[in-house]
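hi! just following up on the protien thing from before. the input was this:
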Amino acid sequence: MMKRTRKRSDWDGFMKPTGSLIINEGSPKGPGLLALDPATKFGWAIDRDVYGVWDLTIRKDQSIGFKLLRFRSMLNEVCELNKVTVIGYEKPGGRNYRALVLHSKLVGEVEKYCEENNIEYRGYSAGEIKKFATGKGNSGKPLMIKAAQEKLGYGGEDDNEADALWILELLKFELGIK
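and the predicted 3d structure came back as:
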């Protein structure tokens, strides 16, 4: 396996991920997986040790279209670098109208990208993810983080990263990958 880490300065003025990107030259464990927790603070995970948050916050003079273009560019780079063949993501849901619209648009970009690049994809509801992680479909953010720390060895405190890690684990479980 060949690794390539990007320096934080490489992302200045664009998006600032908190994790590293890794090139995965193919793994005997199975397909290249990517888990996504879509939002303005966008959680992502490639494995238990490679995860982070993409900050898609836009300036006042930028449109949501600019946010989608930046996201699409990052998605393309991560998928190419890691030879991603399957993407798992959280389906849109909730009551906040603006968040629901953004989430839906981001998922639409994921699905469009997958269709164009022959990548399999699977969406999971928040309840499915929470039940898989904690045994309860209505678990709050602190319980999801705590479960990731205890069961997955997660060392952080960010709910976006924890959710992405759980989506990755659920995807692996569904695909029969250990």
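The chain is about 45% helix and 15% strand.
Confidence is low (pLDDT under 50) at residues 1-29.
cheers
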